[in-house]
Amino acid sequence: MATFGDDDPSAFSQQVGDRLRVIRKQKRLSLQEVEAQSALEFKASVLGAYERGERSLSVPRLDRLSQFYNVPIEQMLPREVTGAEAAAIDSPINKKLAIDVSKLLQLSGSPFEMLARYLRLIQVQRQDFNGRVITVRGDDTRAIAAMLDVPVDQVADRLAALDLLFKPL
Question: How far is Cα 55 from Cα 64, in angstroms, rounded to an integer?
Answer without folding.
Answer: 16
